[in-house]
Amino acid sequence: MSQLRRDPITGRWIIVNYEKSVKPKDFLFEKIKKNENIKDCPFCPGNEHLTPPEIVGHRKSGRPNSPGWSIRVVPNKYPALQREGKLEKRGLGVFDRMNGIGAHEVIIDIPEHMLDIADISDNQAEEMIWAYVSRSTDLKKDLRFKYILVFRNYGKSAGASLEHPHSQLIALPIVPKRVNEELKSSLEYYNYKDRCAFCDMVDQEMNDKERIVEENNAFISFCPFVSRFPYEMWIMPKKHESHFTGLLKEEVRLLGTILRNSMQKLKKLLNDPPYNYIIHTSPINGHEKEYYHWHIEIMPKLVNVAGFEWGSGFYANPVAPGVAAKNLNKA
Amino acid sequence: MSQLRRDPITGRWIIVNYEKSVKPKDFLFEKIKKNENIKDCPFCPGNEHLTPPEIVGHRKSGRPNSPGWSIRVVPNKYPALQREGKLEKRGLGVFDRMNGIGAHEVIIDIPEHMLDIADISDNQAEEMIWAYVSRSTDLKKDLRFKYILVFRNYGKSAGASLEHPHSQLIALPIVPKRVNEELKSSLEYYNYKDRCAFCDMVDQEMNDKERIVEENNAFISFCPFVSRFPYEMWIMPKKHESHFTGLLKEEVRLLGTILRNSMQKLKKLLNDPPYNYIIHTSPINGHEKEYYHWHIEIMPKLVNVAGFEWGSGFYANPVAPGVAAKNLNKA
């Protein structure tokens, strides 16, 4: 029989088939094949003129917007939100509206077109995390912004429109719904138990052991007990911390490494699947220091989300998280 | 500039590009091509022995589980939830769990393998809606169930594993999260305004007119002001009604027709795109008579959901709903 499981933070239920799992080779997901002509890739070294002027570029030497960089941050050429203008919040009958003000940046993680996170060095991984932190810290200063979302799409079916490895950062003038839900539930838990729900989850995962994928001094990576998707992984700081930008220098490196190692296991086991990962952190001026706990959610794109999931917010997961972690660790 | 829009019921924000829209021919979605050998299709007439014994079969004559039917309802051969057993609700540290008890039925909407909702007659559409209502009414009697979800997946990328036209029904032992959210917000609205939020939305759409796709005496079909997806359509009863099973005989026919007509416009404009539709209705023993309003949400699968959407619950819609309705009406 399948099992229904509920997560205290999102209130989300999943149906998990823990008797027989879909085998890694039986998923029919998008096979990633990089076809793009590197000559035309706007993110490849030598094509710096094809992007808007860079916000950040790490180089040992050389001018901005020239080759020789190890990581580059540029404004998105086709931004979802734009930085100039006023919000002009208005009602429209039962609805609310405002202008699409925000920031939308692209982090070109590495110069190598053909590689991905799974293939990078410790230094490259550290630099990427450092870029996430420093861009977030900078954008926090704009008082119109309430939330900064850092995420990565890999593969067309996961929404990536360009092949070259890149992450994205969107600064929003409102706190998004999904974040509000997490804040609300974790506050309820905190009020009831006087403890952080995420800290309790870290403890439980560390005691159970069976769903852990990677671990170091500062972080654990695990397949959560209530995984929506097969081979979903979360990376969580062991120490309580509400905001991602609170990372210490040593933690930046440890986070880069555990992220790279987790993605390596995923790539090896499933033969380079598409995925999304998202950093969940507290809002810019939030007061959730004690009850919110930032983390990264990694969601491989192995199955299609169908009517049942859309209609219910319920997820049917064909691989028990314990089995997923075991397979990842064998990879 | 893009616009941010918020829906009072789901609390969901969207970013809509209302200056330039993606053209219908520029979406890169799955092209539906039916390849399955009809001889092996378990839902085709003559193959009745390939499904579990039918729960309902409409025939002018002939035995159950034999050809000659116009619509058939069967248990899902690979159910997400099973009917036999006890719930056995338990805690597991911070998590909750229970056994996967429920019902999972398949409604084989029509005998014709190659057609879809857009192609069926008024009578066939009516019969399909009737099956949704009567199966829901029957399953309501099982006291373990709290919610009944009726939905339809069309195309592989929308989660359909078989080509033959079919809908699904899942009876759940809990009220799903998505439904709870709608109930909560519509209650807040009702407490504040003493009116149903959905009734206000129907009024506003009928006054604005520009987003209406189809209309008859009992229903409107429209591209909602806060559409998450390009060409999303909602069908809503004009008269306030919390539960889908409250439909009168005449309304069953009108609903079938407006659903078929809306899907016809979608199929014609976008050249047969994959889609999901979901009936949103109140829980079985709910007390939301006054503030909840059942409706159908139709979500064409034209774009991939990416990290931004997963992380925020925010949706970037590349086609303004007003433009979508205009295009659908020209089709």
Describe this protein's structure.
Chain A has one domain (3-330): HIT-like (HIT family, subunit A, 2-Layer Sandwich), CATH 3.30.428.10. Chain A is built from 6 helices and 15 strands. The first copy, chain A, has helices at residues 122-139, 177-193, 197-208, 249-270, 307-312, 321-330, and strands at 3-6, 13-16, 56-59, 69-75, 90-92, 95-99, 103-108, 147-154, 166-172, 212-215, 219-222, 233-237, 275-280, 295-300, 315-317. The model of chain A has no long low-confidence stretch (mean pLDDT 93). In chain A, strand 10 and strand 11 form a beta hairpin. Chain A has 331 residues and is of the alpha+beta class. In chain A, the strands form 3 sheets. In chain A, strands 3-4-7-9-8-13-14-12-11-10 form a 10-stranded antiparallel beta sheet, with helices on both faces.
Q: Give the averaged pLDDT of chain A, no decimals.
A: 93
Secondary-structure element pattern of chain A, one letter each: EEEEEEEHEEHHEEEHEEHEH
Report the total helices of chain A.
6
Task: Please tell me what the overall shape of chain A is.
Answer: globular
For the largest sheet of chain A, list the strands in their spatial order.
Answer: 3-4-7-9-8-13-14-12-11-10
What's the gyration radius of chain A in Å? 20 Å
Question: What share of the residues of chain A does DSSP label as strand, in percent?
Answer: 15-25%
